[in-house]
Amino acid sequence: MKPFAIGNVALASPVVQAALSGYSDRAMRVLARRHGAAYALGEVLLDQFVATVGSNRRNLARLAVADEEHPVGGQLMGSNPDDFPPAALRLVEEGYDVIDINFGCPVKKVLGRCRGGYLLSQPDTALEIVSRVRDAVPASVPVTLKMRRGLDDTAESLDNFWTIFDGAFARGAAAITVHGRTVKQKYVGPSSWAFLTQVKRHAGDRIVIGSGDLFSADACVRMLRETGVDGVSIARGAIGNPWIFPQTLALLAGESPLPPPTIHEQREVLREHWALSMELHGEQVAGRSMRKFAIKYARVHPGNLAVRDAFIGVKVNADWQAVLDRFYAVDGPGRDPSADVDEVASCDEG
Is 105 a residue of the active site? Predict the structure, then answer.
């Protein structure tokens, strides 16, 4: 288990939580850090939103950082290089330790607005964005990127990837996360770990974090060992499953595999996540936000389908506690959710 650093930000292990649009708010990040993630990224935010956000509680909650979650990264997405510097500075003011730039999102509406993965086809614009962000924020704040392995499988896309990859490091990027699918693949088909191996071999001592098909502790350890990347960025595999972090750390330490959490262990984390979300969003918004998490948490319960259906109806604190009282009162072994891979419409995936 080799620790590494992103610029001057030291990480205790190579296991991090990715940015997840609509998911990785302060509550999810704090929970991940408490379970052993060395670092976590906030959900991807539009540069224009960050630069102009007002005093609305719901909007400010998307920028909120907790004292206990440092180091924490903020991820920006946009299309115009001029819009990135003020947004990056705002994230620094809010307390983010690292600024990450999203060049990987494959969602159709994002691509149509020339953001995210689209910029892999525009190396000049992508590199100007990197330069503008690096120049805008203090030298002590690392700037990083998230990339896919190209827009598609053409030779031109591959050339563009290497132009952006090498150019970003030349312009001061401290680390780059690479996902092994193309933008065109979206969430379909396997992630190419062979490509990650090639990228890390090319990068040498430069920091590369791997992403793609990380739905179990075993997969995280295999990626580290097979590709040589410096860290693994867990995204979909961590939604409703913060136990993937201690499970991965145990394997990296040479310990026996940890079993799935028991029903009572699940109950305590569900209560903890709900309380963190209530503190951040208030009861009404937490009720809407936590349903999508609860559906994922249900996969670890032996009665997963019935639990999932019960959580779908949750609106307020009393509803949440009622589900826990009904399905989590009697202890017992949990189940391994790693086989239940499904699509999450997100601008990061692992």
Answer: yes
